């Protein structure tokens, strides 16, 4: 792998980790509510199904 590829890969991993941490914080702050008014998806201005897809990709 060349030097620029390592930089992009490290950035990508960092962004994935940041997204995971943000989703966990949103779920904790909404008392793990994942559907309806005041849910974690609303925190990100997403539909609940979109948030579920992002969480599923992390598994």
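^ structure tokens above, recovered residues below v
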């Amino acid at each position: 792998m060349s030097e620029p590829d390592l930089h992009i890969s490290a950035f990508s991993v960092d962004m994935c980790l940041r997204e995971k941490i943000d989703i966990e914080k949103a779920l904790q702050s909404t008392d793990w509510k994942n559907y309806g008014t005041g849910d974690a998806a609303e925190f990100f201005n997403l539909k609940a199904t979109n948030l579920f897809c992002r969480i599923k990709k992390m598994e």
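The chain has a mean pLDDT of 85.
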